[in-house]
Write a structure and sequence with these properties.
Number of helices: 1
Number of strands: 7
Strand content: 25-35%
Number of domains: 1
Structural class: alpha+beta
Strand order of the largest sheet: 4-3-7
Largest sheet: 3 strands, antiparallel
Order of helices and strands: EEEEEEEH
């Protein structure tokens, strides 16, 4: 991701980002997380799909969060809460 300062192409600052998945089902869910934090649901014996661990939705949009903000806001929480994704 690039950040352009004052619409001048000469002052381009590259910022490392993390992809954050955001659930699209309802405003009530508001789940955000990284790809490994999604739960897995079996479709059949071979196929699986990633779903929201909170509401079970399988549609997400992606937000890009600068790496320094991700480390500050999410890393401590994910260390405490991260478990392997259950297969439903």
């Amino acid at each position: 991701m690039t950040k352009i300062a004052l619409n001048e192409l000469d002052d381009v600052e590259k910022v490392e980002c993390v992809e954050i998945r955001v659930c699209t089902r309802t405003r009530a869910c508001k789940w955000k997380g990284t790809y490994p934090q999604l739960a897995l649901k079996k479709k059949d014996e071979v196929e699986q799909e990633h779903i929201c661990p909170k509401c079970g939705n399988n549609e997400f949009y992606i937000e890009y969060m600068p790496l320094y903000k991700y480390k500050k806001n999410y890393v401590d929480m994910t260390k405490a809460l991260h478990k392997p994704s259950p297969i439903l």
